[in-house]
């Protein structure tokens, strides 16, 4: 791929993902844990073991913390520094996708596949979150890039070229593992297994021999050695707990226990979530996956199909199911979609019906959601109505990306683009401009509105105005973002419920303030009910215990995006 195309793709990634990132508060439960753990590693000059609020954090290997540390040193503490690694990882992943597409098909196919990856709805979300997923996706994509070159090379490599490809594969494997553990190795290996069977039926023997081109033992040995440089000190320092908790609890147990009590039905969850995740390009799914007949006769296509399917097979039987888990296969989807080096077309009735069902379905669902929100407004009490602009903007973003953009793609895809090498980019520039401006405006406005109603931001502002105590004790309100925003001003202690609160705080000193979740309203369940009653209400129990002139009780309301709930928090301190 040429340097100007790479530069364009990377700048496009920055322009697409940075807007809104600076003003959007850390919200997801994992975001503040990653952000704060990196700060605590810097404060203690620790490189091996991450800590959160002074305690071990065994969730992920350390690469994400190391990467974030660079940005903290350059930009200081803040949302952009905490999330910049995901933005850069998304841009680099797009470059690797373009590199694969250029090798397998054409430079135009590669650059379009990279753009497709960046513009899908799931990348718009996870490309700006302070978590480890995008770094892991970069590692998986680079690993597949290296393996593709081994499988489809047209001549034997010699000298530096041979060692360069070997080093690239080994480093990509190590990078992926250090980002998020063994899943970065499972996905490529399963992809190649599926490439042999079932996608290689009829030529299993020849494809098996093709896999012999990959230096399996030596590359995995080098990658394992690199990972052990961190893993051995980590296991020694924690007496094996990093493995027991990091793998035993966060990998194995989460695979056996459904998330939040959700019922796990293999395959069904991702069949439902993949359509919104890939918007606007899911409208062209039939074009990407099924055009071309049986895959056995086309090794390149069968490998990409295997790569796309591998995360579905892994995580469909994994009890903890989240939409972004299948993102490691998204690169293959976009390489399939743009393998012809042009925007997708609709050539038969099935493709047209799928397109209309997806694009029009998105318009109908989002429009219906907005109508329901309009009716729900009269049932929402007081400040809770402030969440409506956030919900309207969220639905508007999905409507734009999944309902409007697919039709703009069809309007852009004129016949001249197929025959002229640069016509597709000249024709596509207005669409790119509209997409950038539209997403930048919506995400920036959404981030601003979210900060206004964000529960943790409101609690933080209240504490700053009323005076931050030396110690904050939280019961039934264990939101880790409070630690990130207030750790340099106070000591934060998590508790475990109202009964414990009452028992342990008979003598509440003047340097301590209690934060208690007293009421919770579900935003998406029952918001049309009149009145909109809370699904949790322990305010009476709390107020009975702390009522009287000995305590001051302040109330803060706000939206908790980690739980998608509207909540009431009581801040309790000694004095009238």
- Helix count equals 24
Low-confidence stretches: none
> Main beta sheet, described?
6 strands, mixed
Helix content: 55-70%
Distance separating the two termini: 69 Å
Oligomer type? single chain
Q: Give me the count of strands.
A: 8
Number of structurally distinct domains: 3
Radius of gyration: 25 Å
The coarse silhouette is: globular
Structural class: alpha/beta
Overall mean confidence score, pLDDT: 87
Portion in beta strands: 5-15%
What does this structure look like?
- This protein has 576 residues and is α/β, with parallel strands linked by helices.
- It folds into 3 domains: 335 residues, no CATH class; 105 residues; 120 residues, D-Maltodextrin-Binding Protein, domain 2, CATH 3.40.190.
- It is built from 24 helices and 8 strands.
- Strands 3, 4, 5, 6, 7 and 8 form a 6-stranded mixed beta sheet that branches. A two-stranded antiparallel ribbon has the order 1-2.
- Helix 3 crosses helix 4.
- The N and C termini lie far apart (69 Å).
- The mean pLDDT is 87.
């Amino acid at each position: 791929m040429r340097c100007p195309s790479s530069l364009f793709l990377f700048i496009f990634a920055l322009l697409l993902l940075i807007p809104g990132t600076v003003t959007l508060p850390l919200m997801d439960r994992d975001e503040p844990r990653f952000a704060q753990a990196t700060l605590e590693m810097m404060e203690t000059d620790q490189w091996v073991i991450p800590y959160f609020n002074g305690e071990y954090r065994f969730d992920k290997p350390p690469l994400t913390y190391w990467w974030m540390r660079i940005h903290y040193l350059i930009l200081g503490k803040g949302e952009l520094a905490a999330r910049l690694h995901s933005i850069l990882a998304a841009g680099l992943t797009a470059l690797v996708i373009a590199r694969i597409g250029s090798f397998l098909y054409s430079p135009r196919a590669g650059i379009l596949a990279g753009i497709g990856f960046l513009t899908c709805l799931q990348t718009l979300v996870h490309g700006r979150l302070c978590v480890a997923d995008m770094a892991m996706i970069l590692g998986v994509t680079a690993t597949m890039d290296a393996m593709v070159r081994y499988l489809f090379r047209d001549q034997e490599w010699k000298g530096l070229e041979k060692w360069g490809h070997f080093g690239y594969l080994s480093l990509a494997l190590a990078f992926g593992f250090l980002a998020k553990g063994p899943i970065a190795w499972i996905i490529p290996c399963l992809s190649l297994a599926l490439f042999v069977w079932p996608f290689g039926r009829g030529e299993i023997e020849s494809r098996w021999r093709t896999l012999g081109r990959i230096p399996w033992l030596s590359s995995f040995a080098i990658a394992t050695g690199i990972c052990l440089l961190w893993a051995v000190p980590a296991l020694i320092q924690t007496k094996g707990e990093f493995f027991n908790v990091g793998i035993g609890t966060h990998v194995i147990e989460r695979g056996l226990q459904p998330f939040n009590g959700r019922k796990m039905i293999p395959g069904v969850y991702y069949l439902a979530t993949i359509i919104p995740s890939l918007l606007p390009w899911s409208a062209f799914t039939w074009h990407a996956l099924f055009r071309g007949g049986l895959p056995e006769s086309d090794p390149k296509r069968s490998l990409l199909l295997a790569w796309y399917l591998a995360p579905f097979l892994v995580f469909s039987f994994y009890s903890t199911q989240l939409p972004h888990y299948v993102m490691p296969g998204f690169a293959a989807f976009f390489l399939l979609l743009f393998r012809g080096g042009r925007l997708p077309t609709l050539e038969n009735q099935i493709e047209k019906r799928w397109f209309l069902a997806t694009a029009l379905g998105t318009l109908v669902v989002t429009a219906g959601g907005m109508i329901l929100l309009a009716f729900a407004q009269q049932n929402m009490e007081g400040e809770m109505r402030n969440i409506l602009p956030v919900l309207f903007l969220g639905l508007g973003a999905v409507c734009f990306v999944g309902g409007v953009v697919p039709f703009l793609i069809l309007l852009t895809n004129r016949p001249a683009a197929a025959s002229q090498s640069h016509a597709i980019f000249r024709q596509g520039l207005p669409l790119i401009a509209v997409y950038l401006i539209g997403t930048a405006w919506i995400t920036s406005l959404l981030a601003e509105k979210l900060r206004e109603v964000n529960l943790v931001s409101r609690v933080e502002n209240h504490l700053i105005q009323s005076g931050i105590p030396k110690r904050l004790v939280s019961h039934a309100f264990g939101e880790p973002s409070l630690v990130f925003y207030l750790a340099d001003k106070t000591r934060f202690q998590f508790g475990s419920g109202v009964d414990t609160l009452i028992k342990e705080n008979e003598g509440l000193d003047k340097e301590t303030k209690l934060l208690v979740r007293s009421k919770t309203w579900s935003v998406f369940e029952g918001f049309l009910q009149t009145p909109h009653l809370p699904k949790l209400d322990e305010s009476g129990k709390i107020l009975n215990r702390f009522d009287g002139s000995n305590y001051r009780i302040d109330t803060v309301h706000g939206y908790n995006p980690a739980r998608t709930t509207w909540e009431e928090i009581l801040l309790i301190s000694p004095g009238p």
